[in-house]
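Hi all, posting the design record for the shared folder.

TITLE: backbone redesign
STEP: 1 of 1
STRUCTURE INPUT:
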């Protein structure tokens, strides 16, 4: 593994670490969604769903009872439950409306509760949502149900409620265990709290536990990140997501509460990432894509080994469903025809769905070129490689165009880290931390857009 500051085929990595590029959880990326995709368009797309198709659901809970300053999610803080209760009633309306549109043609393979903080919900509301979803949609017997948990919210009743709706995977945000770092991001959470939640969900049959950890936070150092990683490993998580903190105060104003002078620079961020990845890998976890790790035998590790890894707004996944339906404010649906996003304004969302409407406010329909470029970018992000033969087989002339672009990139842009082989193109090992920048070379929208993005590493 290359050390921070070493040469990368003539280009110092640190010169590219601060390059602002998308995270490529979608292509085209969200800044290029537009109002031309309406609720009517989304309804038509759902109506074209094939009978028996496997689908995924994402439910967005847009509330937290504390505001973490590092967070870039669509959420709002509230200490009162009344707004949450009103939202739940609206969400139940949307579930019923969209369920009627699907009309039993889709079989739910996976369900993910995100936020915000799904654990803010009262236990009885968790159960109500579970019942409503199973009433409106047909679930497969082995459907995966994952929930993002905030340890500070959890109690015995919530453990039981999530168990009652069939939770199979729990994802806990840890970020960092160092008190100074936690105070700087307004996210105080002890190791003991985290361990108690992991013990609680495992005692109720949850098969997979994921921990989210961050580098690049204020006051973090290579040594402090290493301490957090080693503490996290004692909890034996099945998966670890190691994200770089995205400092985007122009997008999320509460991030201005973070002291920028305390943020590590590009070289230090890279060193933190490299040291954390080394420790996790030496503990026996398999690296997955850009920033995930999993125990050997975990479904994500098996998918990566077998070339079945995918990427969506929740990150890396083994979920191969072509249709992902988003429910709740700001949630994004991905269908074979394109992306559709609900309005992020909770009041507008509630008013629309209570009247039986569809809350979609924007999105983008795929062109054939979008499909080809999206496939290539996903393969680079997941496999660090793509096949020339497969590109041409799947996309014909557009595949040939991308092969030629990749060939030019490999020949003329050493910083992209792309190498041509007999079978296709491969990102060199030392360039993998910068794969977002490599993927950006094939992003036609980025060249003409004005959106601002976070640093590459």
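Okay, here is what came back for every position:
SEQUENCE:
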């Amino acid at each position: 593994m290359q050390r921070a500051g070493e040469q990368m085929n003539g280009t110092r990595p640190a010169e590219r670490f601060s390059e602002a590029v998308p995270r490529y959880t979608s292509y085209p990326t969200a800044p290029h969604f537009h109002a031309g995709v309406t609720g009517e368009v989304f309804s038509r797309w759902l109506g074209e769903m094939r009978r028996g198709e496997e689908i995924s659901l994402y439910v967005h809970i847009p509330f937290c009872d504390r505001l973490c300053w590092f967070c870039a999610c669509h959420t709002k803080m509230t200490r009162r439950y009344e707004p949450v209760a009103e939202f739940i009633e609206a969400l139940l309306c949307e579930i019923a409306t969209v369920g009627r549109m699907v009309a039993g043609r889709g079989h739910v393979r996976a369900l993910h509760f995100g936020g915000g903080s799904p654990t803010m919900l009262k236990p009885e509301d968790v159960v109500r949502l579970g019942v409503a979803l199973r009433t409106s949609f047909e679930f497969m017997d082995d459907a995966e149900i994952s929930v993002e948990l905030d340890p500070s919210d959890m109690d015995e009743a919530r453990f039981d409620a999530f168990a009652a709706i069939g939770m199979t995977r729990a994802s806990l945000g840890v970020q960092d265990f160092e008190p100074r770092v936690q105070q700087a991001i307004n996210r105080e959470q002890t190791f003991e709290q985290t361990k108690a939640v992991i013990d609680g969900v495992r005692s109720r049959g949850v098969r997979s536990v994921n921990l989210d950890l961050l580098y690049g936070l204020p006051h973090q150092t290579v040594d402090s990140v290493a301490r957090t990683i080693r503490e996290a490993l004692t909890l034996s998580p099945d998966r670890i997501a190691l994200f770089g903190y995205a400092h985007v105060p122009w997008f999320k104003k509460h991030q201005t509460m973070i002291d920028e002078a305390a943020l590590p620079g590009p070289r230090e961020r890279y060193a933190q990432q490299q040291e954390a990845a080394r420790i996790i890998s030496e503990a026996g976890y398999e690296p997955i894509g850009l920033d995930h790790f999993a125990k050997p035998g975990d479904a994500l590790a098996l998918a990566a080994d077998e070339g079945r890894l995918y990427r969506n707004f929740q990150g890396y996944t083994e979920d191969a469903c072509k249709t992902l339906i988003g429910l709740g404010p700001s949630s994004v649906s991905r269908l074979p025809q394109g992306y559709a996003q609900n309005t992020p304004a909770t009041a507008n969302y509630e008013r629309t769905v209570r009247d039986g409407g569809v809350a979609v406010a924007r999105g983008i329909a795929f062109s054939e070129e979008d499909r080809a470029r999206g496939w290539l970018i996903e393969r680079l992000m997941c496999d660090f490689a793509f096949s020339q033969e497969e590109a041409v087989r799947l996309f014909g002339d557009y595949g040939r165009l991308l092969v030629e672009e990749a060939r030019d990139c490999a020949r003329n842009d050493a910083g992209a880290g792309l190498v041509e082989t007999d079978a296709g193109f491969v990102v060199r090992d030392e360039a993998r931390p910068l794969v977002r920048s490599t993927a950006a070379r094939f992003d036609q929208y980025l060249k003409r857009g004005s959106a601002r993005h976070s640093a590459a590493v």
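COMMENT: DSSP finds 14 helices and 19 strands in the chain.
Let me know if anyone wants the other runs.
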